[in-house]
Design brief:
heterodimer; A: mainly alpha; two-stranded antiparallel sheet; 79% helix; globular; B: mainly alpha
Chain lengths: 270, 290
């Protein structure tokens, strides 16, 4: 798969980094932060789903672990945010490696893999919910198997970083947010909408999906469920009509333009 | 250890609940056996069926058991159309895409119900809901006994359809050898849709059996469908008998876990068993091939 050059990536990061200098609007910044968070989690899913070829329906397992490890280390043990964040990532990676080792050794793939990841995320949700007794809402004051396993661990680590970042930003976590199906769905929606197995796919997908979500809220008020109805619909439509995502649509357009241009210049020569 | 006075009713109640689990799993395994996909929209469709049964009584005064007669063909048609006009065309014949499309449908259905009816939990108040059958050793709730009987009848009817009718024979042919069936003139797209319709119709019946003693909210289907996944994997993906036997087994396990460990731990027990079976016996305890 042909990726963009390092220069491209640096350019996009530099452009995003200038946004806080240009605007102090909390609406704009909040939107971008949430979109980038989803892009990060989506990129985590993309490492496994796009490059590893295994579709996980339970990335909440890693997001939640990253979030909870970071929060608990900070709150209960008074550990500084940065090492807590790093340990949160390590915790998520560990969970990823453990689930990966179990599933890939058993040769699970395709539907079975989607099912087992979903089940793991659900078990973690139940365990945390039971342990924290539901009202645990917390404010944080302050070879191929091996290749797949590596992909799974990296994927889990990136997603756990998303979880750790979530806690730092929203200062709140509970079992439903941490291990709930919403984050598993957002994690796969961003890369699928943007383009599976591409570097910028999750970023483009996250921005598009979040824009749709915000527009829905603007038009209908804060009706529960409606934004997710749109997300589900977008998922079906993208799979049906643009199975390689928005980036491939853009690439197709560019090729069409590139074909038009030389033929036009030839015309002037003759 | 507990005495038989507590144990026997727990086992019998587990069997009664397990029969309905088995029916939900039957729909799932039927679709898997023929289309070779896991239908992630199964839970959301069950939720939709439970809402339909609920409002059939609330708005039209229809008793759930009568509603089943109307809802079963309706949900057959819904399932047929979903497969024929949405899932089939959208998936371009790729398994991964089918996973994503059924997941997308699940998200749409579940949240559309949330949007329309809110997150409230609703229950029907039926005068016979608390009637019991006295077996001498145990009192059993009447709606659950009826449910058990209906599931057995449905399973028998389904078996007759599959083994005696032309469509049933075509379904089994497609399940066994898709290409061969296609070459001998069977319309595979139609058979896929019929199978999906049958699986969805099972949900309508299950919903009508559940609603007299259970509650409904937009997320209710998920709890049942994870149990159904467990049963399907346990009984062997695509095995109809496996689904029924697995259903009864899981019903008893859940009932006994609830008795010994408490409600919430009983549910974790099912998930843990699900993961263990997936990891170590993905072909199922009764599965024929790996």
């Amino acid at each position: 798969m042909r990726g963009p050059s390092i220069a491209h990536i640096v350019l996009v990061i530099a452009m995003l980094a200038t946004v806080p200098l240009l605007t102090a609007s909390s609406v704009v910044l909040n939107f971008l932060i949430v979109a980038l968070l989803i892009a990060l989690v989506g990129q985590g899913w993309n490492v496994l789903g796009g490059y590893g070829g295994q579709y996980s329906f339970g990335h909440a397992a890693f997001f939640g672990t990253g979030a909870y490890v970071t929060a608990i280390l900070q709150m209960r043990y008074g550990i500084n945010a940065w090492p807590a964040f790093a340990l949160g990532i390590a915790g998520g990676a560990l969970v990823g490696a453990a689930i990966g080792a179990l599933t890939f050794r058993s040769g699970l793939k395709g539907s079975y893999f989607a099912l087992v990841t979903l089940a793991f995320a659900e078990v973690l949700r139940w365990l945390v919910a039971v342990r924290e007794n539901e009202d645990a809402a917390k404010a944080v004051g302050v070879d191929t198997v091996r290749v797949k396993l590596v992909a799974m661990t990296i994927s889990a680590a990136i997603t756990a970083a998303g979880g750790g970042f979530y806690v730092q930003y929203f200062l709140y976590i509970d079992s439903g947010i941490a291990y709930g199906p919403w984050i598993s769905i957002e994690a796969l929606l961003a890369p699928i909408v943007g383009g599976i197995g591409t570097v910028f796919g999750p970023l483009i997908g996250a921005v598009v999906v979040k824009t749709l979500g915000e527009l829905t809220k603007l038009i209908t008020g804060d009706a529960p469920g409606l934004d997710l109805v749109i997300y589900g619909g977008v998922l079906v439509l993208i799979v049906a009509f643009a199975p390689h995502g928005i980036t491939s649509l853009l690439a197709a357009l560019r090729i069409r333009f590139a074909r038009l241009r030389p033929s036009a210049s030839e015309g002037t020569h003759v | 250890m507990l005495s038989p006075v507590i144990l026997v009713p727990a086992i019998l109640n587990g069997l009664l609940t397990g029969a309905v689990y088995g029916l939900i799993a039957l729909g799932l395994t039927l679709i898997y056996g023929v289309l070779h996909i896991i239908n992630f929209a199964h839970g959301a469709l069950l939720t939709a069926a439970m809402f339909a049964a609920f409002f059939a009584h609330r708005w039209l005064g229809l008793d759930p058991y009568l509603a089943a007669i109307v809802l079963t063909p309706l949900f057959f048609a819904l399932g047929y159309c979903l497969q024929r006009f949405v899932i089939g065309p959208a998936a371009h014949g790729e398994d991964r895409n089918i996973l994503l499309v059924t997941l997308g449908l699940a998200v749409v259905i579940e949240n559309a119900l949330l949007y329309a009816f809110g997150a409230d939990t609703r229950t029907l108040n039926l005068d016979y809901a608390f009637n019991v059958v006295d077996l001498g050793i145990a009192f059993l709730a009447l709606p659950r006994v009826i449910g058990f009987g209906v599931v057995l009848v449905v399973a028998l009817v389904l078996w007759l359809i599959l083994s005696l009718t032309d469509t049933g024979k075509a379904i089994r042919a497609v399940a066994k050898e898709k290409l061969g069936a296609e070459l001998s003139g069977i319309d595979v797209g139609h058979i896929y849709a019929v199978t999906f319709g049958l699986g969805t119709a099972c949900l309508a019946i299950a919903a009508c059996l559940l609603i007299p003693t259970y509650y409904v909210n937009p997320h209710i289907g998920n709890a049942f469908v994870l149990i159904a996944f467990t049963i399907v994997v346990l009984g062997g993906m695509g095995s109809v008998t496996g689904a029924l036997v697995g259903g009864l087994f899981i019903g008893v396990v859940e009932s006994l876990c609830g008795l010994y460990l408490g409600e919430s731990l009983g549910q974790i027990g099912i998930f843990v068993m699900f993961i263990l079976v997936l990891l170590f016996r993905p072909s199922g305890l009764l599965g024929e091939r790996a």
